[in-house]
Structures are given as C-alpha cells and as structure tokens.
Amino acid sequence: PEEFVYGEEDFVLQAAGWGDPDSAPSRFDRVLLAGWSDRMERGLFRYRLGPLPTRVLPGPVRLVAQLNEQRSAERRPPQPVHSLRDPFDPGAFNFTRLRPAELLFRLRRTGGPGPPPDPLLVAINASPLERGHVLLLPEPARRLPQVLTAPALRGALEAALLSAHPGFRVGFNGLGGGASVNHLHLHGLYLGGPLPLEEAPAEPLGPRLGLLRAGPAPAFLFFAPGPAALEPLSRAVCRAAEHLAGAGLAYNVLATRGDPPAGPGAGGGRGLRVLLWARR
C-alpha cells in the first residue's frame, strides 16, 4: 500500500467543534475517507453501510444505541477464546489474509517528538460499525496475538491526533473483551456525536490519572495533553492492561479527545483521554 508520511506539523491539536465536525477535514481524514468510500463502491465490504437508526437512551449515562442488523448477521463469526494468553494461531483467520485492495495506506512518521512509533497499516473493517471504520495493524507478518503493546497504542493515538474530526475514536478489544480475531489490531472510526466520557470529571489517582465512574462501568482514565505525552502514556496504559490480564481480567481501551481528568473548566486545554476498562 501507499505510505502516508506525517510529521509533528500534521497533528491537529484542536479538533473541529461539534457544531460542524466536517468543516475542515485534515489530510488524514480526506485520504482515509476517500479510500474507504472507494472500497465501499467497489464492493469490498461484507455489506453496504447506509444510515443507521441511532438514538441516545434516557438516563444519566446517556448510552448511544445503534441498530446495525447487517453486522450482526453477516460479520465473520468471532474466534473462540480459551485463555487471555491464547497464542497466535496461523490456522485461524488473521490479517495476513487480507486482500491487497482492503489496505488503504501505511502510516509512517518522520521527525519528533521522540523516536517514531512502528508503522501501522490502515485497512478497512469489512464489517463496519460506522463510516470510516478501519483497522490499525502493526506489521501483520509479525503474527502478534491480541495483546496491547505500547508501540501499537502509541501509533494509534498519533492517528487520532491526525484527524480534525472530534468524533474520530480509537479502540482496542482484548481477548475475552470482544476481540473477534486473535491477531494484534486496533480500531479507528468516526462517531457522529459527543460522548459524556469526553468531559466527565474523574477521581484523581495520580498525575494525569483518574478513576472515571460516569459511564457504564468504572474506568481508569489516562490523559495526554499533547503529542509529547503519548509515549509515556502508552507505556502506562499497557502496564496497567498487563496487570489486569495477569489477574485474569479481560480489558477494553478507548481513546477520544476530551478534557483533563478534573473535567472542563478545571484548567488546561483538551487533549486525548484514554480509558481502560476491566472486564469480568
């Protein structure tokens, strides 16, 4: 695939507002969405994604409910999980089997801050949840199992900063936490509205770390005010995730633009919130 080469000057430190989220797409947004739409027109997805019935459920958590019947019926069946430490299985479906046309581009950074993360392949998710739903893949030939690594997370967080859309989010589902393929991957997708998790205040646990209770389940909240903080944050998130896995707990990760852990108006600008949930 073609390379998408970027530098620190390509990071969008302040995304567009929710009043007009598509007003000024970044170079990353334009390339990703154009490639994604092209593959949709060429029939490379398992189904054609149209407008989806969506509403915010009443209640303090304000859960977003969306009906996507085609994904439920036509997605590839998830692989069975026997252990949180399941090794990569070359006999099962994995991302070395993607068709070349499913690959959009390869992300590669040059210059600072710090050493660049490992390149990530950006591929379509053939069973999309939303428009622009892509997979962020460390080199598939390395055949890494679905265990989050700091280099992969850092590369995905940099991708989040390349988007000017306030609803571009990055997520990770671990084994036992909703992962359907045991081959290291993260998700990126555009969501059409704000989430309470972007601004809800968290109980302080340490510098740029809090416990967020304002959600469907408590989450550890890590915060990066800018690109220079992504490397130590990625290491901290992965250390915490490894601790959870060692205790027999699956986990999920979500990265979104948002306020510092103390919430809006507490001083400091917006950055990236990274939430880590433990699963039983």
From TrEMBL:
Where the record annotates domain GDPGP1-like N-terminal, the positions are 27-188
- At the top level, the lineage of the source is Eukaryota
Recorded GO cellular component terms are:
cytoplasm
Q: Which GO terms describe its molecular function?
A: GDP-D-glucose phosphorylase activity; guanyl-nucleotide exchange factor activity; hydrolase activity; nucleotide binding
* Short name of any one Pfam family annotated for the protein: GDPGP1_N
According to UniProt, the name of this protein is GDPP1 phosphorylase
Give the GO biological process terms. glucose metabolic process
Organism of derivation: Pachycephala philippinensis
Organism placement in taxonomy:
Eukaryota, Metazoa, Chordata, Craniata, Vertebrata
